[in-house]
Amino acid sequence: MMAIIDIVGPVFLVVAVGYFSVRIGLFPAAGVSGLIAFVNTFATPCLLFRAMLTVDFATAFHPAYLASFYAGAFVAFAIGVLAARTVFRRRPGESVVFGFAAYFSNTVLLGLPIVHRAYGEEALPLIYTIIGLHAPILMSFGMVMMELARRDAEPLGRALLGAAKRVATNPLLIGIMLGLLTNLSGLELPEVLDAATQTMALAVLPAALFGLGGALNEYKLQESWGQAVAAAGLKLVLHPALVLLATHYLFHLPWELVRVAVVTAAMPSGLNVYIFATFYKRATDVAANTVLIATVMAVATISLWLVVLDRLAPV
User: Fold this and answer.
1) CA-to-CA distance for 218 and 31, rounded, in angstroms?
2) How many domains does the chain fold into?
């Protein structure tokens, strides 16, 4: 148990420092959004760019590995939408937000540091491949589903075109593609570019965790906390359980793939859930509460998943 605390504790301690620094005024609340924008738009693309320079394609881009993660996500989304419509009587657009909260993981701000601390540098290329597809696939799918669900939707063709543009201009995907092209070309990175991207990449983990903690000050529990707990449960329990079933029991993948896929799926709902809800002005209460509750619950649930994976690991 102490080993699990050593993995999870430092990560959430930095999150707590960010939260209380903003809470008591040591760090300006107005600066949090800029810090997170720096992480997502500049630092993380540099990190992914460098990761792709030496990636082992045979290991990292495993079809069954990626299919397991995203199939689990889409099942969680479908169950979330169904629960929102039938149990909580939410409208169609609001139900899409509920499903989005149940399947969109915090892969960058929490996933990267926890996988790194749990399984070391050699596990990072595996989570990078999930991160590279995560926002383009899940954000685009969520947008299309919302356009189909909401009554004031624009034509489907325009919605699909807009989703395609957002995918093509996604900084994370751009960083990955540039790294892959450099890798495949065999070109050696100039020293000045190598040093600059490495410096940017080193900023990702501390800035991401501190920024996440600061951002949590924006969320307050409201009447929809029960719905948020349900969405958080789908994200923290159902999604990783489905991924474990698929990777380990269905596809019998190597254990290093199984554990990274499951731990990444066990991450709480990401900040993009709230951004998505506010963009469409649907179920913002559920989105905000889910991000807050899922992040707090994740301290326990991620620890539990690490214990489960440790017990299941081949001798």
Assistant:
1) 13
2) 1
What percent of the residues of the chain are helix, what percent strand, and what percent coil, each to the nearest 5?
80, 0, 15
> Residues in the chain, how many?
315
Which CATH number characterizes residue 59's domain?
1.20.1530.20
Q: Is residue 315 part of a domain?
A: no
Phi, psi of 277 (to 5 degrees): -65, -45
- Evaluate whether residue 298 is within a structural domain: yes
3-state secondary structure of 105: strand
Phi, psi of 258 (to 5 degrees): -60, -50
The model's pLDDT over 53-71, given as tens digits with 9 standing for 90+, comes to 866 666 567 899 999 999 9
- Residue 1 pLDDT more than 90? no
> What's the gap between Cα 24 and its chain centre?
28
Return the structure tokens found at 150: 């909401």
Tokens encoding 29: 């609340």
Residue 254 inside a domain? The answer is: yes
Which 3 state secondary structure label does DSSP give 269? strand
Mark residue 215 as left, alpha or beta (left: phi above 0; alpha: psi -120 to 50; beta: remaining).
alpha
Of 118, 102, 42, 121, nearest to 242 (Cα)? 102
| Spatial distance between the Cα atoms of 118 and 263, rounded to a whole number of angstroms | 9
The verdict on residue 16 lying in a domain is no
